[in-house]
Structure formats: structure tokens, C-alpha cells
Amino acid sequence: MTRNPHRRTAIGSSAIPRYREIYESLRQKIVLGQWPPGHRLPSEHELARSFGCARMTIGKALGALADQRLVTRRRRAGTVVNAPRPQESVLEIHDIEAELLAAGVSYAYQSLERRVRRANTADAATLGVPPGTPVLALTGLHRAGGRPHALEERLINLQAVPEARAERFADISPGRWLLRRIPWTEAEHQIGALNADAAIARRLAIRRNTACLTIERNTWRDQQRITHVRVIYPCDQHRLVARFRYGPA
Amino acid sequence: MTRNPHRRTAIGSSAIPRYREIYESLRQKIVLGQWPPGHRLPSEHELARSFGCARMTIGKALGALADQRLVTRRRRAGTVVNAPRPQESVLEIHDIEAELLAAGVSYAYQSLERRVRRANTADAATLGVPPGTPVLALTGLHRAGGRPHALEERLINLQAVPEARAERFADISPGRWLLRRIPWTEAEHQIGALNADAAIARRLAIRRNTACLTIERNTWRDQQRITHVRVIYPCDQHRLVARFRYGPA
DNA sequence: AATCATAATATGCCTAGACATATTCAGAAA
DNA sequence: TTTCTGAATATGTCTAGGCATATTATGATT
To answer: For residues A168 and A174, what is the distance between their CA atoms, to the nearest angstrom?
Structure first.
């Protein structure tokens, strides 16, 4: 092992890597408007020369900019600054239990209904399985500090999760149970609002017609539907927060 | 330029790159449970040997897995499979106008109120600026197919966006106007639900107490607050959809 | 048994060079 | 003028090797 004859400067001596520095430097030019949308960046070769590093290091920095959607890269066409991105944000849908415990509030799950049945047409439509597929239908209440916090209506595909048939879900949240048993590969959320009907109002101990936030979630494991859940929060009990930053992930 | 003496197989001959194949192969092992959470992956050297490629190619694949939060990598400790991630999803908050036009519905913005004032305490709190800062307060209606679609209440920091003072916003949506003028670097969304009060109901032509979905958005440009907006959708007019997939971005 | 210094190890980052491929551009042919 | 063809170019991917650094394991010393 001989000493690398090509090395010019010590690497790793500084805490922040070179490609990050370069990334930051280029990012500044873009977000501060010095390079407006449509502007074409210098080629990798030129940047490598001007920054005094190998082309691959530039490639890594430009790749990171592309990951962040700040630029578009095309062969021969070069690297071009994007128009400001459409509003897009990372939404974290937290585990209700973890969230409440973190806030120092007591938490409990209470099962209200549990039925195994063959999917009727409604089940088949919401869960996306053929009618007749065995499903587990659960209704439960999440309680925070003793008071009703959210109502959960869930369908589980027993073909995908046969172990669920033996589980009572009397006081453990099916969300948690599933999360640590069945890895999901794809999820879709739909967020909406509804006026509480009589049944919902009674169970959540709120007035009829109170606005509620609803979150519907479908999860898949490699094409196969695992579960569908609708969680209903009274409007004063929950907000979703999503935050996005340009820049270092 | 001599032919690379090290090359063993043609690259680029196949449409999918080697590191993606490797990424996929490793990802399968994880999401299908063959490598459970906590399992330590073989070292880069071992993987390079078994896949018959350079260590850097393995590094790229493992780096992608780490970006997806499927694994955690630490020096000397190695690469370890993560516990299933907390529910986290990319939420796209679309431009209302673009969304409606894409759906083939006519769109119009109608200004209802426009006032320039020095921020009162309420303005200061919502926009996060010192009281007295000049702000532009706008109220407007998004119409789809002639009917009210969403109500928008907005505050713009005139210190950050002085050009807005000259703009009437009579029939162009301030969201669009801002988006293409002021690049934002950070955004926060809060999603909730509310019962329409009399004023909201009148403007949206819905019944009082109808549940509405609200989206509040704050945007920053490098520490500086740009705007705060609250958009109110009747519950039957809008849903937010967020989708997440493990795997290739 | 507990503490500390040292060696081993796995990742992190980098280089210089090479081939592959998509896309654009200029010039030739129709 | 239009269409086609080949050259030029910028990115995409890969290799083989090297140094840097964090962390763990080991062994020596107290």
C-alpha cells in the first residue's frame, strides 16, 4: 500500500465533507435567486476545475440538488435550475399512542366492536379485496387522559394477516400491533373533514354536527392490501403538522 | 486513452444500473422480513465480493437504503436494519388553480377584501412579526365551475415582499403571484377542521356549521416570514392525499 | 473487577480515469 | 427548406485504490 500520489489536500480533516460544502455553495446561488429558474449550471468538468476536486465529488453535490428537486439534470443538456417547486411537504402521521405518551398524557385503547366476516361489497370497496375475502372489522376508541380522543374504524385483510384472527384487540391498539408485525411497503393517506353524526358524537362524547378531522389510511405490502383505517378526531383535539425545508435533509 | 483493464462486464448495457439492482435485492430482504429489524448486514467488503463489484457501488446502494431510513449506518458498528418507520408521508399541497384546471374545471379568483395596515397583535402573532410591521391582509374566494370552492385568508409581510403593496390581487390568486416571485426556503402546514361560522358559511354558500377542512401555511425565506394563509374548504369539496412508498423514489 | 490504552474494523469520503448513453448541434443530402 | 446523419458534449455509472474517523473489541494495568 503506497501513499496515494494523487491526494492534494487532507480529507476528512474538517467535520463537513467537501461535497456538502459544494452542495451548500450551489444551493445558496439558487435559493437566493442568483441563479434564476432556467439558468444552466456549469458542467461537472468546469465545476470540478473551479472547486479543485474530482468530478465524482461534484456529481454527488449535484445529485443531492437534484434529489431536492432544486435542479433537473439531463445528459448533454446539462443541469438546469428548476422553477420553485409545487407546495410539497413531509407529513408525519404519528402513532397516536406514542404521541400522547410523549406529551405526558395517559393513553388507553378501548375496543368497542370486533367482528370477523366475509367482505361485503362495502368492505370490498374500501379495502380493495374481492367480496367474500375474510376480514376483521374493528371499532375502537383512543382515550387520552381518560377522555375520548379519537374514534377508529378499521378493516384488516385476514388473508394478508391471518395472525390477527386470534388477537382480541381488547386493549391494545390494532395500529401498534400491526405496525410491529407487518411491514408495509406503501401507504396512502386521505385527509378530510366531516360533521359528526349521532353515533360518532355519542362515542366521542361531543355534540352532534361538531366538525371532525378524518384520516383514512390504506396500507399495502407488495401489492397486497393489509388494512384500511379511518380515524376521526374532534376538531379541537388534533391538528396535523407538516414541515418542509429546502436544503440539508 | 487505453481500454480500462479492470472492466469485467459491460456497464450501461442494461437499462437499470447495478447499484439499483443491488439496492432492490437488499431491500427485498428487509421488507419481506428475511432480515428483521436489528439484523446487521454484511460489511461493504463482503457485499462487494459477493456481488462482484467495487465497494463504492455497494456504498451507493447502502446509502440509498439509509436515505430511505430502512437501515442505519455507523462506522465500525456496521449497517443495521431499522424498526419499521413511523408513519411518514409526502404530502403535496397543490396549487388550487393548477389542480382545478387539470381536472378540467373552470377556475377564478375573486378578491373580497384587501387592506394594508400595520400589524396588530393578532396579525403579529399569526405572521410572527413585530407589531407595527406593515402587512397586507387579503381575503379572497377560489371559484370552481362558477361555485365557491375555497375561502382564503392571507397575511403578507410587506417588509419581506414590498412589491405586493402595488398589486391589486383583484383576480389573480396571491398564492400564485407569490409562488413565482418569492422563492421560499421553509414551509409549515397545519391541517385541521372547523365548523363554518356565519361569515364563512355566507361566503362559501354553505350551511352554517358545515364541517370544513382548513389548511394553514406559513412560509419563510431564510428566517424571514413571508406569508401566512388559511384556506377553508367545505368538507365535500376537498381531500388531501398523501402517498408513500418504500423503495425507489 | 474496573479502568484505560491500543488495535482492528466498517463506514465515509475522496481521486483519477474509463466507458455508456442521451441529447443537441452542425453540416450534408434531398 | 426540410430531413437526416454524425460529431460533440454533459451526465450516469463504474472501477480500484487510498486516507480519515468513529466505534468496538482486546488486552494490559491497576
So the answer is: 9
DSSP B166-192: G---SSS-HHHHHHTTS--SEEEEEEE
Q: Which residue of B190, B239, B241 is in closest CB contact with A240?
A: B190
Min distance A168 CA to chain B CA atoms (Å) = 23
Last residue of a domain, one of B30, B57, B81: B81
Task: Tell me, yes or no, whether A199 and A116 share the same domain.
Answer: yes
- Å from B121 to nearest chain A CA? 23
Does B98 lie in the same domain as B66? Answer: no
On whether both B110 and B50 belong to a single domain, the answer is no
Q: How far is the CA of A58 from the C1' of C4 (A)?
A: 43
Which three three-digit cell numbers place residue A1? 500500500
For residue range A186-232, what is the model confidence (pLDDT) as tens digits? 888 888 999 999 999 999 999 999 999 998 989 888 789 999 999 99
Q: What is the pLDDT of residues A14-60, one digit of tens each?
A: 578 999 999 999 998 987 788 988 999 999 999 999 999 999 999 99
Q: Pick the residue from chain A with its C-alpha nearest to B240.
A: A191
Q: What is the rounded average pLDDT for all residues in chain A?
A: 86
Q: Domain containing B202 — which CATH number? A: 3.40.1410.10
- Asked if strand D comes closer than 7 Å to A45 Cβ, the answer is yes
